[in-house]
């Protein structure tokens, strides 16, 4: 240790830790499970885009809703609309999947999840990351994360459409298992969307006096409670939308008998 006089500053050096981490717990387990969970969502999403069994009246698979081309079955079209006409013959999911997908990709919670699990930046607290430098989200492409708020507006629309699909199923087949699967999914999707940090900020984040805006304060309080559950809602809604989508497709393929669906 360096000898010092009472008036001289004490020189300290950082601990020279040569191992990746001193943690002895299974710190790698959470990044691994996150990687597997998010990867399953990506793989399923790609399959759902190319699969054409997305509608059996009154159910429409969430990954294909809204269906906006004339190639869509008539009952699958939103309000009977087909604004993309005959020229669009690709899978309907390609038209809209980028909106909720972009919302999740730029979500604050999902950023942390895939930064840690896919990029190992860092993989866990008190664990060294393999990257030599850190530039944050100030450069391309990560600077595009700043458009998260605009994806939020689009996600609200998609969430309302999924709720509309669930209501239609509830009206036409109230006892169907698929109906209630779609209802639960719509609730979770919209709860996750409203729990977004951007939603909380938009609701009343810039107000200086809550007392002057009682309605916005109540809305902010409600969204804040949802925001505290943002992480579990992110996972629950991700698996619910996959489960609901897969269920509809299995019914459409005849793998699940429709009279009992």
TrEMBL record:
Entry keyword set: Membrane, Transmembrane, Transmembrane helix
Domain of life of the native organism: Bacteria
Transmembrane stretches, start-end: 27-50, 87-110, 150-171, 177-196
Protein name: Succinate dehydrogenase
């Amino acid at each position: 240790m360096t000898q010092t006089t009472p008036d001289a500053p004490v020189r300290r050096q950082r601990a020279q830790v040569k191992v990746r981490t001193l943690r002895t717990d299974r710190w790698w387990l959470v990044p691994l499970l996150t990687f597997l969970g998010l990867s399953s969502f990506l793989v399923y999403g790609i399959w759902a885009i190319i699969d054409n069994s997305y509608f059996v009246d009154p159910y429409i698979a969430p990954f294909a809703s809204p269906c906006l081309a004339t190639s869509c079955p008539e009952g699958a079209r939103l309000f009977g609309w087909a604004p993309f006409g005959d020229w669009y013959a690709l899978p309907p999911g390609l038209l809209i999947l980028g909106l909720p997908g972009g919302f999740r990709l730029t979500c604050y919670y999902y950023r942390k999840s895939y930064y840690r699990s896919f990029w190992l930046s860092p993989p866990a607290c008190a664990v060294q990351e393999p990257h030599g430098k850190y530039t944050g989200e100030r450069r391309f492409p990560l600077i595009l994360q700043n458009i998260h708020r605009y994806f939020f507006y689009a996600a609200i629309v998609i969430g309302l459409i999924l709720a509309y699909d669930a209501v239609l199923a509830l009206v036409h087949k109230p006892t169907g298992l698929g109906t209630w699967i779609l209802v639960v999914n719509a609730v979770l999707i919209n709860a996750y969307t409203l729990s977004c940090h951007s939603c909380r900020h938009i609701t009343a984040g810039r107000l200086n006096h809550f007392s002057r805006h009682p309605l916005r304060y109540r809305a902010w309080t409600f969204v804040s409670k949802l925001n505290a559950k943002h992480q579990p809602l992110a996972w629950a809604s991700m698996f619910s939308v996959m489960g609901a989508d897969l269920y509809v497709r299995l019914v459409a393929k005849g793998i699940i008998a429709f009279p009992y669906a």
